[in-house]
Design brief:
The complex is a heterodimer of chains A (288) and B (321).
Chain A: H1 4-13, H2 17-46, H3 50-54, H4 67-74, H5 80-111, H6 117-128, H7 136-145, H8 152-156, H9 163-174, H10 178-186, H11 191-199, H12 204-220, H13 223-228, H14 237-246, H15 252-284
Helix pairs in contact in A: 2-15, 4-15, 5-9, 5-12, 5-14, 6-9, 10-11, 12-15, 14-15
Chain B: H1 30-59, H2 77-84, H3 88-119, H4 124-132, H5 139-150, H6 158-165, H7 182-207, H8 211-219, H9 226-236, H10 238-253, H11 257-262, H12 273-282, H13 288-313
The chains are: A mainly alpha (288), B mainly alpha (321).
Chain lengths: 288, 321
């Protein structure tokens, strides 16, 4: 039996030989091809003219109408630039605010010895039982009573206090090395000083992971901006795109150019921040 | 509080002159600091999470049409109304059908992709990125591509174009509820967006399986492939699978974006629970009472499913054998 081990192991290392490997790469390439089709369609349609999109025969490559970009932004009836701006403001401020509030609370819950800390923590956990999407009716009731319809406040503030993100930060800070805090103590720092000068600078990876996830969900959010942004001036990119779909007056190539531009920031985020994103997802598990 | 103006608070910040306590903890009063750190978050949580939930629970017992401060108490009438005289029960059926499609397919596809990617030795990062990339795309943008390009009912839609190569007639995928081809549209869209995300979770889990297990199995004569998968990989992934299935269920339950944009709220079919809530509370009726009742029902259902699954399958990350 023991003799068999090395041979078996060599078998495994080799995969199942060249043939098995080829099969593997064929399978994975076919899957990748299918996954890339929608991106190809956005790209092709965004740089085509309308007759090319709707023409009889499928055109594999677009005629590269780069002018579609300026046409989209110059069109006064579309107001796409403004919705891009709205989305940027909302996604950025949501991310900053969520990180600030949730990380501080998570640190407090994890690391500051207070006898009722556990009770507070259970109160936070209880909110996880009710998914945020289901509470959009009550939240809308509250936000409209505050007069926050069509405002950035209304879009951003209710989403900042995420029990789930706070929970993730707490779990992370529970594992934060005690020695570093010890160093802060030796330096005579209080909790506040230690947090900003020692804990946060040494947790940037985790902050980056949470920031990426929060930014993406802020940028892609639809239901809440749809409910709160009733005036076209308050529309985010997603609401604007949605309106194009039902609005017969906007041309195909402009709709697809808008779609392309709307996903561009996130594709960059993915390409450059993927490391943190993957790490964030794998570590924290799971997005709510 | 007054000592903590900005984050620039420097070292000499007179953070309470508590006499140098030996060891244990940082300087300063823990209780005060606890509230300093958690207070802003907790205030927000109370105002924007607890208050709406309680308020909504209260509204669900009142006649709250066009008002959020009603005075006419009607007991369980809102619940009766939304469970009998509305499309809300039908939306629960829609959700069930949707979940029956999307949960197993996403589970299988994301696990399959993870197994494939895990075996790659070169270009692994590339393929992982390709499968992961759709996670960046919003449901709205994807709905737009699916509705206007891939499954466009006219000839130039991609699906119809490909079918025409094989001599099959064009068909309208979305605007016709029978036969219900719209499920293909909806399900492929969500599969495309979320498979890569769950693939990442499975990849992480696969890498945590001790390689000795596979060696031991092959010594015991297990054939590579199906047998090791069935008796080693799958059981080792149980915790992750449980978590993934639960997440998929909850996500399916809250489906809104792609249904709203592809099917629309005016259709009589394929309306999800959140769409019904949206129409009840924010449509022409503005019936906050019935809408709140629906939200309460949905929340209770989600809690039950979560707790039941946690009980039955053991919550993710628990003890594994």
């Amino acid at each position: 039996m023991t003799v068999a081990t090395p041979q078996v192991r060599r078998d495994r290392k080799k995969g199942s030989g060249v043939l098995g490997n080829t099969g593997l790469y064929i399978a994975v390439s076919v899957a990748a091809f299918l996954f890339l089709i929608p991106f190809y369609l956005i790209f092709r349609n965004a740089l085509s003219t309308d007759p090319e999109i709707t023409g009889e025969n499928w055109k594999l490559l677009p005629s590269f109408q780069w002018g579609n970009i300026s046409e989209l932004f110059d069109d006064p009836t579309v107001e796409f630039a403004h919705s891009m701006w709205n989305s940027t403001v909302i996604a950025v401020l949501s991310t900053v605010g969520t990180l600030l509030f949730c990380s501080m609370a998570g640190y407090g819950l994890a690391r500051i010895p207070y006898k009722h800390a556990n009770k507070v923590f259970y109160a936070v956990l209880a909110t996880l039982m009710v998914p945020t999407a289901v509470t959009f009716v009550p939240s809308f009731v509250l936000v409209s009573s505050l007069g926050w319809i069509d405002t950035y406040r209304g879009m951003i503030v209710p989403g900042l206090f995420s029990g789930f993100t706070c929970f993730l930060f707490r779990q992370y800070f529970l594992g934060f090395p005690k020695e570093l805090e010890e160093a802060a103590r030796v330096d005579g720092l209080g909790y506040w000083g230690a947090y900003w000068r020692i804990v946060v600078p040494n947790s940037l990876n985790f902050f980056a992971a949470i920031a990426t996830i929060t930014f993406i969900s802020g940028w892609n959010a639809f239901l809440w901006p749809l409910v709160i942004g009733q005036d076209p001036n308050a529309w985010t990119v997603q609401v604007a795109l949605s309106s194009f779909m039902t609005n017969q007056t906007v041309n195909f190539h402009l709709i697809f150019m808008a779609t392309a531009i709307s996903i561009l920031p996130l594709v960059f985020v993915f390409l450059f921040l993927q490391r943190w994103l993957v790490q964030g997802i794998a570590q924290t598990g799971i997005k709510g | 509080m007054s000592t903590t103006t900005t984050r620039g608070v420097a070292r000499p910040a007179p953070a309470k002159a508590s006499p140098a306590r030996p060891r244990r903890g940082l300087r300063g009063n823990p209780t005060l600091n606890f509230w300093l750190f958690t207070g802003p978050f907790l205030i927000g949580l109370v105002i924007f999470v607890f208050v709406p939930i309680v308020w909504s629970f209260w509204l669900s017992f009142f006649d709250a049409r066009y008002t959020v401060t009603p005075s006419h108490f009607i007991g369980f009438d809102n619940y009766k109304q939304i469970l009998t005289n509305s499309n809300f029960p039908a939306s629960l059926v829609t959700f069930t059908v949707f979940a029956a499609f999307i949960v197993p397919t996403t589970w299988a596809l994301s696990l399959g992709l993870a197994l494939l990617v895990n075996q790659l030795r070169f270009m692994r990062a590339f393929f992982r990125s390709v499968f992961f990339l759709p996670t960046a795309v919003s449901y709205v943008a994807a709905a737009l591509i699916w509705k206007m390009s891939i499954f466009n009912g006219v000839r130039f839609g991609l699906a119809n174009t490909v079918m025409s190569w094989f001599g099959v007639d064009s068909m309208s995928w979305i605007s016709n509820p029978s036969p219900p081809w719209y499920w293909l549209v909806i399900v492929t869209l969500r599969l495309w967006i979320q498979a890569g995300f769950y693939m990442i979770l499975f990849l992480a889990a696969l890498q945590n399986i001790p390689p000795e297990l596979y060696e031991a199995a092959s010594i015991d004569g297990a054939k590579r492939g199906w047998q090791t998968f069935r008796y080693i990989t799958l059981p080792q992934l149980r915790a992750t699978s449980t978590a993934v299935i639960l997440l998929l269920l909850i996500a399916a339950y809250q489906a809104f974006d792609e249904f709203f944009n592809i099917i629309g709220t005016k259709a009589t079919w394929a309306q999800t629970p959140l769409m019904e809530l949206y129409k009840t509370a924010l449509g022409t009726d503005q019936d906050y009472g019935a809408g709140s009742a629906g939200a309460v029902i949905l929340s209770v259902l989600i809690c039950i499913v979560t707790l039941a699954q946690g009980k039955i399958m053991g919550f993710g990350g628990g003890e594994e054998k």
